[in-house]
Task: structure prediction
Amino acid sequence: MKPCDSIDTMPVFNWFKVFETMDLRWIYPVRTLEDCPKKPKWKELPEVWNRLNDQFVDTFGITDNYRKLLVQKRKLMLMEIDIAVDKKKHLEGVMKVEKRKLDRMETPTEKTNFEMLVAKVEMATKLSIDVHTVSVKRFYSYMKALEEQTKNVDHGKED
Result:
């Protein structure tokens, strides 16, 4: 099994799971971690995750705070891999400090409840979204369209 290599194919459920858990095994197209390969390609996964994030940024843009958040999460993911794969136990203390930094950086917006976000998109679009099959790109396209529609309504330009 190969990891998802595009936001066009990665299920939005998995995308949110990587952010929620910081576990890069969610990059594989799986519904549970038990479905992952027994020996994930640990050294390859951070690079795949970076490419996915680059695609997301290229497609949807990014705020400066979100960029800083991504950098911090990437740092933590790489430390977790170093501890797990390369047995660098001395990083555990540093990692606790970095996790506290991340907690301070995250606002309620970044900690958005995934199910609530899906429910809001479903209510607004009147679609039933299967989070295991809808891609990251499709889901965020819905969100972006809804955001633009709301801006137009707020400015009296409803289509």
